[in-house]
Amino acid sequence: MPELPEVETTLRKIKPFILEKQISRVIIRQNKLRFVIQPDLATKLTTKKIIGISRRGKYLIFSFKSGAMIIHLGMSGKLLLLPENHMPMKHEHVTFVFKNGLALCYIDQRKFGAILWVDDNPLTHPLLKSLGPEPFSQEFSAKYLLAQAKKRKTSVKQFIMDSHTVTGVGNIYAAEALFLAKIHPEKKINTVTQAEFAKLITAIKTVLRLGIKKGGATIKDFAFLNGSIGSFQNEMKVYGRENLPCLVCKTILKSKRLGQRSTVYCPRCQKN
DNA sequence: CTCTACCCCTGTCTGC
DNA sequence: TGCAGACAGGGGTAGA
Fold it and tell me: Cβ of A146: how many Cβ atoms within 10 Å?
């Protein structure tokens, strides 16, 4: 689930319920995620009040007067708000119980996510400090991409999916953005012009914005009821549509593995 | 330095 | 139906 739009939507929806709220206890049922959860995480969090919640790339940062918790949802992680006395869900590995009777539940069947405690500035943590710019920031410009591309030889899709180039563009949004920008995913990055980068940036922002908008549409149900996942999937033009006709030119869409990830594109619309 | 292959884990789908 | 194998939206890292 969690690409940048889902992480952003999760953030927006849980924030009003847990900001300025005090954690009364933390239940850890499974401590082996991508990394083993620090044994003192519960101790560090108990009685602390969340004073800030923010996002960096696909990482969520929960700040306290001293220290912070970083959560990454991996490929299958979710954060649900449930009543404190709920029955634990399947794969509910960690539960943060608040004094106000709500519980923030970390659910992750594949355990690719991460929950970390840091005593100092979370942005200087090794996982976060070398991340590229946020896709909606000023820094994410055609000029910037052109400069980055000079050092690289990879394909444009792998380039924009690299979190050191720009954060938060996962497989789906990369495929959708390249289709929108009419750029072939295998195009070598050193042949992309500044004008093409400008188009690509616009396309990335467009699909991410649409994702946030569509994710937000059902996230309230998501957070409180049934875990449904938003409706961006109905907007996808290429992802998951291999062997179906292109919505623009009717050419059959092709699928290929690129850097171990499935990649769908229109061989006619997207120029190499 | 960059790039590729592999890995963490479980659930679901496809083909035999 | 049963079962094996491929694959899934992420991303760190070993080794070339």
Answer: 17
Q: Which residue has the tokens 């188009």?
A: A199
A34: CB within 7 A of chain B nucleic strand: yes
Q: What is the pLDDT of residues A98-141, one digit of tens each?
A: 999 999 999 998 898 999 999 999 999 989 988 999 999 999 99
Per the DSSP assignment, residues forming a β-bridge with A183 are: A271
This model's pTM is above 0.90 = yes
**What gap in Å lies between CA A199 and CA A64, rounded to an integer?**
40
Reported as a single tens digit per residue, the pLDDT across A218-251 is 433 344 434 445 778 778 899 888 888 999 999 9
List all nucleotides in chain B with at least one atom under 7 A from a protein Cβ. 1-11
CA dihedral of residues A18, A23, A28, A29 (deg, nearest 10): -60
User: CA–C1' span, A258 to B4, in Å?
Assistant: 11
